[in-house]
Amino acid sequence: MDESNGQEGSRPPAPLEGIRVAVPATRRAAETAALVRRWGGEPLVGPLLEEVAVEDEGPLRAATEQIVAAPATWSVHLTGVGTRRWLARAQAWGLRDPLLAVLAAARIVARGPKTSAALSEHGLKAAWIPPGETSGEIARWLAPQVGAADTVAIQLYGEPVPGLTATLAAAGARVVEVAPYRWALPADAERSEAAQRVVVAIAAAEVQALVVTSAVQAANLFAVARTLGLEADLRRSLNERIFTAAVGEVSRGGLEREGVPVDFVADPARLGALIRGLAASSDRIRAKSGEGRKHHL
Fold it and tell me: Which CATH architecture has domain 52-183?
């Protein structure tokens, strides 16, 4: 008798086995899908947003000029791609060297290792990286250290971060937001069709769970649904049949603004914690979705 085969046969099913999970991500879609599969789930991926350069560069240039003139005493960088785009545009305006000089003299906060790597490409080093890579950690750490004498540059990641900017402003600092890009719906046909497939599947409750990692993902879910005439069906499925999970409070707010309560919020706000929490919620997922229960059986 092969004992290993006997053990294999008695192994319990993975937590997400039989559960289809909608993943409307772009930047970390492959990583999210791989984590879902690791826990036994079936990911349905469709990008609901993509990074595009801002059409009007006036505000970006004005913010850059303010940061150079102030000069900034702190600079918070939330993404590597945003840092690279910002410095590339500064070079086009002839402001790269003065901007780099200001950033080199300022204290820099990078949200994560990828952002830190982008900074190092330009000879800049982060003074601090939040362990959980969240803007909430940055706000809590930085607020006690700034005051009226400080100008804080915040490089955004495609959408406003009111919790961070408001906290630093309340501490007395002058906050200058830098938006080198914005989030938009996918433009090319293939990605647009994939996004529509995800929306149609959610509206028809053909998935048992949804994970969102950005407030804009939630907004774009409903934007696409409106173009397809499926807004009411989408909201009904998310409220009554589909388990909703968000990577943090900002993402949670995106769904709640669309009238969708969130069943699980990851804490810490990390992708790994999000999918682990989803797996730990498998009974709740099946309880909410009769179809999910049938798949499991």
Answer: 3-Layer(aba) Sandwich (3.40)
